[in-house]
Design brief:
The complex is a heterodimer of chains A (134) and B (120).
Chain A (H helix, E strand, L loop, with lengths): L5 H4 L4 H33 L7 H4 L4 H7 L5 E2 L5 E2 L8 H13 L5 H8 L3 H12 L3
Antiparallel strand pairs in A: 1-2
Helix pairs in contact in A: 5-6, 5-7
Chain B lengths: L1 H19 L4 H10 L3 H4 L19 H15 L12 H7 L4 H12 L10
Helix pairs in contact in B: 2-6, 4-5, 4-6
């Protein structure tokens, strides 16, 4: 279908102007329908979280083991305390903690930076990996 | 002189050990019971009622102390730069704890048997 451009519309009579208006209403409806279908489709995607892959996680733990893989390792900034034991921790909790750092619900200089670098798939993989280390 | 240094070092080590033991395990269990922490984290602090809640048994005491303080700071509206945790549930509980309560309940939790480790 071909739509007349603006220069042509300067020479239109009243009838064709009405037609043009009808076409533009039809286009608006199509656009709204498209937007609505996207709004429905995306939450459905979000409700389906990625499945954790323990094998894939092995290539992703290098940023974790430098602190969490050393028994008794203590963070020295901004406070001095032992970094948490995370091996054997609940899968869903590990994921929730990483998301809390990424969203700013929890703050810690190192964990903020690391969590923001992780995709949803990375987070799922790390949760599966650490919860299975028993 | 060497003996004196050794004796002083020993005394210092003993001193710091007694500081760590300043936490009262029985009082810590009382805090755990009083705030009914088991209703979410499980009676053994291992089997939480929801997998999105952490296992606490056997976790480092000093980490638990800093986590509870971070919830306190978060609940008090401290700036994001001050190592905070914002959580409606944990913020409400943490606000009710004194510094000594936090030391005690963290020490009691760290002394409970659990699956946590630094394995990799």
């Amino acid at each position: 279908m071909k739509f007349p451009n603006n220069s042509q519309s300067l020479f239109m009579d009243a009838t064709s102007k009405r037609d043009l208006k009808r076409v533009s209403v039809a286009r608006t409806i199509v656009n709204l329908a498209l937007a609505a279908s996207c709004a429905v489709a995306f939450p459905a995607l979000a409700a389906d979280p990625p499945k954790g892959d323990i094998e894939a996680a092995k290539a992703k733990v290098s940023m974790c083991i430098g602190c969490h893989g050393i028994p008794g390792y203590r963070a020295s900034f901004p406070e001095v305390y032992s970094v948490p034991k995370i091996s054997g921790q609940n899968d869903k909790y590990i994921q929730a903690a990483l998301r809390a750092y990424a969203s700013g619900e929890r703050t810690h200089p190192t964990m903020d930076a690391i969590s923001k670098s992780l995709s949803d798939q990375d987070i799922a993989d790390l949760g599966a990996y650490y919860s299975n280390l028993k | 002189m060497k003996h004196l240094t050794l004796a002083l070092t020993g005394a210092l080590l003993l001193g710091s050990a007694s500081l760590v033991q300043a936490a009262d395990l029985a009082a810590g269990k009382a805090v755990w019971d009083k705030l009914n922490c088991a209703s979410c984290h499980g009676a053994d602090a291992v089997k939480s009622i929801d997998p999105s809640y952490p296992i606490l048994a056997g976790q480092h005491a000093d980490f638990l102390v800093q986590a509870l303080r971070a919830y306190q700071r978060g609940a008090e509206g401290a700036p994001a730069t001050s190592n905070i945790r914002k959580n409606a549930i944990m913020g409400t509980f943490a606000k009710q704890l004194s510094r000594q309560d936090i030391q005690n309940v963290s020490a009691w939790l760290a002394a409970q048997p659990g699956p946590l480790s630094a394995r990799r």
